[in-house]
Every structure is written in structure tokens, then in C-alpha cells.
User: What shape does this take?
Amino acid sequence: KGKPMICIICRVNKNKEDMSDEHVIPDSLGGFYHIFNVCKTCNSIMGEKIDSPLVNHTFTDFYRLQESMKGKSGHLPNPLSGIFTEKTNPDVKAQMKVNKQGGLELTYMPNIKEDYDPDGNQIIEITVDSKEESKLDGIFEKIIKRKGLSGLAQIKIEKRREKRSEAVHGKLKIDILKFKMGMLKIAYEFAVDTIPDFFSSADAIKISNILKNADYERVEDYAKIGSGLQPEIFNGFSKYLDFSSKKHYLILTNSEFGLLCLVKLHNLFDIGFILSERNFLKNFDESIIGINDIEGKNFRKLKITKLIQECLSSLYVRFIYCFHDE
Assistant: This one.
């Protein structure tokens, strides 16, 4: 069945057939970085418990909607799904829907009220959004049929339009912890795939257990740089990285605290992890940059010295005077 391989998550020897194609950066976020040393069982756990909170985060939904990044269903996410109501009239309910142009559009939900006038005649008031006016007759017919009033001549229909000016309100739930686990997985897998000695370190063993058990509370043992929403942590690399393009960036470098991995998911999340107290790289020149080009559909790794050569213009040589006493 081929040479046994060690899964980098559960750390168990597996047959090659038991391993799977692991997306380091989720493909729904335009990830093109693949590794093949995660077993199928752990891959499933990573997808359900680790990647899902990151991919389905409220801010991720806003990002994917803005960037027109459809999911496997072929639809754009709706970051404002749920029910909104007017404060003074809670019976008025509305929903945000994603229209054909990929924008958010407020739509009032159908509302049905039943009452009687002073003469004892029943009044049925049906309110629908003007964009869904075509549904009005169908709703009315269902009510009449349900009440057994079909065929009676005493039914009087009156239509009118109203303009709603009051704002609608709702609650938005935003996770500030679980998404970091997905970012930690990206940093860990990048480090294991890039620095072979890191995998057997004590911290790498701890991180793999955190990921395997989806231990969200322990993720902040390693998430030390930024809240996840602070792009300024990448300011030091602004001369070398093109933040105006649609790219994800991963950076492994030395720091005074140990091995640092910075993860930047385009215009979404930015965070730094101290993966180990030990610096596995000899010096800053050994720093590794991972570049995931969303539009170019590729991923590549570069040493920072190579990246600087690519970013800076050609070097020219000129003669200068040199005096032996200076």
C-alpha cells in the first residue's frame, strides 16, 4: 500500500491511500496551497471544526460578497441574513437578500392581519414588499380557500401603496475567537511544510493537539500579534508585498519571542502567531514568504532575499573615490 506517512494533525502513521488533499488556505477563499500529509479523517475534522468558523465568519461573508466569491453552492453568502423589525411596529419584518447584481437589498416580509369592522365584516389585510407584489394574489387566494370563502360575491378587494420610512433593526453576532483557529491551522501547516525540524518540536506537538481537538480556548496561547483585524502588523513588509493586489500572504520569520508566522488573508484577517520559543531560522535573510495569488490561481514560496530582488529595481554599479584614511 505504499510507504507509511505521518499525519501532521493526529501524528499517526497512515497508508498513503489514507492521506488526502489538504487546502492550507480554504479554497472558498481562493486558496491554492495544497499539502498531502493530512489523513482523510483529520481533513474532515479540519473542514468541519476548524475551517468552517473561518469560512462562515460574518466578516468573511462580507468579504466574499464584496469580492463576488461564490461558494460550492454557486451562490454568494448573505452576511445580513436574519429578521429585522421596526422598533415602533415589531409586526413589520424585513430581510436582507442578495440580488442578481450581487448587492444587498432590503425586502419586507409578507404580513397578514385579520380584524372585523363595526358591521361585523371580516377584514383581511395583506402587506407585501412592492418588489414581490406578484405574490399578493396568490397569498390572498390561499387565505380565501382556507377559510372556505371561495365563490362568495361579497368579497371586496382594495389595493393601496404605502411608503415605509422607519429604519429596521436587528442583531449581528460576530465571533472574535473561533476564526483564529482557522488562521492557526494555516500558520501551523505552512511552518510544518516549510521547516522540517519544526514538526518534532514541543510546541508543534501542542498545536497539532489543539487543532485535532478544536480546543478554541487555547488558540490564544499562540495568537500573540494583533486581534485578527489589524492590517498594520504587516506595515514592515509594505515595501516588498503588494497589498493592493488580490493575494494572501504567509510569512515565517525570526523574532525576539521565537518563530513568528504572520498570516494575511487579503482584505479580511491579519494576525501573527508565535509558533515556538525557538527560532528555527538562522537569520532574517532566511525568512520565507508564501504568496497565494487569488487571480493568478497559484501559490509559491520565496526567501525574503529573493522577494526583495524581485521587488526592487535593477542594481547599478558606479565608481566612487575611496581614501585610505577614511
